[in-house]
Write a structure and sequence with these properties.
5% of the residues lie in helices and 55% in strands. With 489 residues, it is mainly beta. Among the domains are: 101 residues; 56 residues; 131 residues, Immunoglobulin-like (Sandwich), CATH 2.60.40. The strands form five sheets. The protein has a nine-stranded mixed sheet with strand order 28-31-26-25-22-21-27-30-29, with no helix packed on it. Strands 2, 3, 5, 13, 16, 17, 18 and 19 form an eight-stranded mixed sheet that branches. The protein has a five-stranded antiparallel sheet with strand order 10-9-8-7-11, with no helix packed on it. 25% of the residues are buried.
């Protein structure tokens, strides 16, 4: 085969084209010198905002804004941000061209404009002072120099040093380093006249808690459980039409100083019937995430309530419990044991789908109500519950029984050694109601324990507790006697 005479001449050209096609594109260049163009963005430029609020009184804010930039160096002020922002958590990125700008510096300005701050910035500078002249019926103006403001305003007027000036002070301008509201400022090296940006940051001043309302029926056997989320915003910023998510769980954080979040106490009356639950729940890492199914507005210095759940006709179990004390078995107490003891009242609810519930319940306060004979709902007790997964039990302490009382006495005591004893007890449970009641007598005993004898069967609740189930007739009394041997060392 005859080779074309032009083939060798094409080889260098093909090699050059191949090298050019395989070469990586040159990285973009960003202008980092020259004059700085000021730009600002307020809440009006928000395209969207999303907030995730955590149990610990903080939140994560994500904003999307359409901002005006310029080619060259740009000082972009992001206004209407939280006063509780943690600047080290701020992240900004372009959503259009990823190479539209580069962040050179980030500043968080929180030196807020106010009378005291304004005077501090004018120490050593000239201002004008005005004092009302009664005779002339007008203000008289003089030039003054601010000398000090630490423990009162000291001025130099007409070559005299004075303080406690009885007039008003006028300033020629606002110093550049004072801002009316907390502001994020970036120094950008920009290649675009306009860009859509996403900004995210953590902030204090955002919190949420849950309040539950349980309404029990006449027999204390069933009830309706309603859950309300109370959102609080003291961050210094308002968020309109925000996508809201709540995280329930114990999220670990590095401890640092933070401001307290103010919040009002919940009302001691049931709220109006809620609308159907508005949150979608899902598992999230080792926590639970609740997403509000519609946008909502969180104004600064505002509390908002949104319904979380609504469960009807859940089975409720009421328990009466008489508890003893661990040290009772170690000593010969005699008359030192309080003769009459209160009987605690508890409600138990299974958080299961079978019981018309079955969603993970965030930590909160359960307030319980019951209708009296006239039909009016009355408050009968409250308790705080911890984060409760589905298929776990909720226990609410209601208070102490009025008509069921207990009384105990030590009838015998023998020390069997330095750390061992045997004692005998008599517990009387009296019921002044018109119906029968069952009381669980719960006796804590540390160390090794053995029931020597008892008038009712003893049940081992755990390694350190035994119980008796005591049925007490209407307007009657039941006594429990037992002897126990305990070794605690």
């Amino acid at each position: 085969m005859r080779r074309s005479p032009r083939t060798p001449a094409l080889l260098p050209l093909l090699s050059l084209l191949s090298a050019v096609s395989c070469a990586e594109p040159a990285p973009p260049t960003f202008p980092d010198k020259g004059p700085i163009t000021p730009r600002s963005s307020g809440a009006a430029e928000r395209a969207s905002v999303a907030i995730t609020v955590y149990n610990g009184g903080f939140g994560v804010v994500r904003e999307v804004r359409d901002v005006k930039l310029a080619e060259g160096r740009v000082a972009l002020e992001l206004r209407d941000v939280s006063a509780g922002i943690r600047p080290e958590t701020v992240h900004i990125r372009p959503l259009g061209d990823p190479n539209s700008f580069r962040v050179l510096e980030q500043n968080f300005r929180y030196d807020l404009l106010g009378p005291e701050k304004l005077l501090e910035k004018y120490v050593g500078r000239k201002v004008r002072v005005y004092r009302w002249n009664e005779a002339k019926g007008q203000d008289e103006a003089k030039e003054a120099e601010v000398l000090a403001v630490d423990k009162g305003v000291v001025l130099r007027i007409d070559n005299e040093i004075t303080f406690g000036f009885p007039g008003r002070i006028a300033f020629p301008e606002v110093p550049a380093n004072l801002v009316s509201r907390p502001t994020l400022v970036w120094l950008l090296a920009s290649r675009a006249p306009r860009e859509r940006i996403e900004v995210s940051y953590m902030s204090t001043g955002l919190g949420w808690e849950v309040d539950y309302v349980l309404v029990v029926n006449e027999n204390d056997t069933r009830g309706d459980l309603l859950g309300w989320v109370t959102l609080s915003n003291t961050s210094g910023a308002s968020y309109e039409d925000a996508q809201l998510k709540l995280v329930a769980g114990n999220v670990n954080r590095v401890q640092r100083e933070s401001r307290d979040i103010a919040g009002a106490d919940a009302e001691m009356a049931p709220p109006p019937p809620p609308s159907p639950p508005q949150f979608r729940e899902e598992g999230f890492f080792e926590y639970h995430l609740y997403t509000l199914q519609r946008p909502t507005t969180l104004l600064d210095k505002e509390q908002k309530q949104v319904s979380l759940l609504e469960g009807h006709d859940a089975a409720v179990k009421k328990k009466l419990v008489l508890r003893g004390y661990e040290n009772y078995f170690r000593y010969g107490l005699g008359l030192e044991v309080p003769p009459k003891q209160k009987v605690g009242v508890y409600l138990e609810i299974e958080n299961s789908e079978k019981n018309h519930l079955g969603i993970p319940l965030p930590r909160g306060v359960v307030r319980v109500y019951k209708a009296d004979k006239s039909g009016a709902k009355q408050f009968i007790g409250e308790d705080r519950i911890d984060h409760t997964p589905r298929d776990e039990k909720i226990t609410v302490k209601m208070g102490e029984s009025f008509d069921v009382v207990g009384e105990r006495k030590q009838t015998d005591f023998n020390a069997l050694g330095q750390c061992q004893s045997e004692s005998a007890w008599e517990i009387s449970v009296r019921n002044h109601k018109d119906g029968r009641e069952r009381v669980e007598v719960e006796e804590p005993a540390s160390g090794d324990w053995t029931i020597v004898e008892s008038s009712l069967p003893a049940r081992k609740k755990d390694a350190h507790t035994f119980t008796f189930d005591v049925d007490v007739p209407a307007r009657g009394e039941t006594k429990v006697t037992y002897r126990v041997r305990v070794r605690w060392c």
